[in-house]
């Protein structure tokens, strides 16, 4: 039992912070480069304050029909060294 508890405690500490959905507003979409610019709130798992910045789209399909000015909720993470939107949903 003690070994299981110690292992579980190690895993909780060792695992990176899970991505959490962040609210933002799209300011630019660059389908040709597979990127989008988002004005967003703090992104805790990346230890990032709210700001406007460029992200790579994890999947080019995310950018289809997306326009500047749209409100979104998204998850972001560091993928192969690049800040990447891993999940995106238009807000209502």
TrEMBL record:
Protein name: Copper-binding protein
Signal peptide: 1-19
Keyword vocabulary terms for this entry: Signal
Protein source organism: Bosea spartocytisi
Phylogenetic placement of the source organism: Bacteria, Pseudomonadati, Pseudomonadota, Alphaproteobacteria, Hyphomicrobiales
